[in-house]
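tl;dr need the bound structure. longer version: we got a ligand (nicotinamide-adenine-dinucleotide) that a collaborator sent over and nobodys looked at where it sits. i said id run it. heres the input, straight from their email, havent touched it
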Amino acid sequence: MFDVIVIGAGPAGYSSAIRCAELGLKTACIDNWHDAKGQNSLGGTYLNAGCVASIALLESAKIYQLLTDNLKQHGIEAESVSVDIALMMQRKNDIVANLSQQIAESFNALKIERIHAEARLLSDRLVEITTHDQSASSILEAKHIILATGSSPVSLACAPIDNDFIIDSTMALNLTAVPKRLAIIGAGIIGLELASIWNRLGSETILLEAQESFLGFADQQIARKAYRIYTEQGLELRLGARVISAKKGNKKVTVEYQDSEGTHALRVDKLIVASGRKPNTENLADAEANLLLDENGYVHVDENCRTNLPGVYAIGDLTLLGPMIAHKGIEEGLFVADQIAGLHNSVNYNILPSVVFTDPEIAWVGQTEQALRAMGESIKTGTFQLADTARGQATGQTEGMVKIITNADSDTILGVHIIGSQASEMIAEAVLAMEFSACSEDLVRTIHAHPTLAKALHGAALAVKTHDLKSGSVI
Ligand code: NAD
């Protein structure tokens, strides 16, 4: 009998298993991910086919673009620059394998029992495990079970995946050649991150997005800026464009979509479907277990990640407690492990950073201006352009801005929104400030190293107060 069985070894699951073991609980972690060789690779989608893989490829694509487009302004010439996609993918795969191996080493060091199998929750905290080839199955028992099976891409009936011409986001990180013309269904976070990679490597990239608004979940001032920057980079963003069919023929895909002007057809070399993700709950629990799901398959949980079954928890992408973001899952994993060990902890869902790993990056924490205005909140805003920082000018990282929103009376920071290089790093200061209920005045009085891009946060805080901070004044 285990103290804890964790099902799933993505960021939520492996963090939770590690914390459980560190707290002295006898822990097993069951995971069904296998790589091309049929070997288990810990880390889930986030590591194997998500953020880490995507960031590794984007970095390669940025270097290629620097060498081909932007190097001359530095007074440097580079000739015969070419891309070897196989090597680029190998680098990415090595990074993934190395990180996965580090998780495995932590499991070994903490004596976490690692099981490569398909797990199914039965009643009374029993778990049935079946080997990948279905050749053997057995039943395990635990005092506590943590469900952390993550999510997978939503399929579209109008664009069935054939793993060749019409592919999902996982395969889009494993292409063997640069598509000449590429279409992506969905201009959400995944669609934009993939577009940023392949567009830089030379694909003519068209994003088809059913919504009329762009990045509707982000602050709209930032979204407008992002739209302009992405468009100038060469991404073709077609909004209000709902894909209705995709058919392959003659080594091309014909994509049909409708917008306000009628039906259009597009011929491309590859079509990526990035139309959202769904929780992996399909075969997670036996009907007799009576695990409560909602109509979209999300596990029903209370604010402590407890399901309707005693001793069974669900964390990460499986629940609607917060967005599908790796660090939300990690925090919940630690939180649940602490709960099981009798420790008190909590997850502050209100101060949770979000990042779009494009180039430039977009990062935010707290509320958007449009949400606050809709709530009737009395607010002040301050913005500062990266182009007005000495560091931005010296490094050429001039595209982007920082926006701070505060309560008009108390000056408490309600939201911080950044677009620009290093936005994912800069947002950490804003998260900390909000975690400590800081005011914009606190940021103004905080000394920022000079010259840095973080000075733009300082500048935005100053702008909340003064509003007469001249645009064009460099800090
Ligand atoms: P999404 O729901 O954010 O975006 C999918 C988009 O596809 C939507 O805007 C939708 O309108 C559009 N769409 C759906 N059907 C369409 C059709 N027929 N024609 C045209 N457009 C269509 O989903 P996603 O980008 O796949 O991301 C899934 C989840 O994973 C999100 O919750 C996201 O936050 C999370 N995620 C986060 C990160 C990160 O934190 N950096 C990275 C990857 C994924």
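gonna send this back to them w/ a short note. The mean pLDDT is 95.
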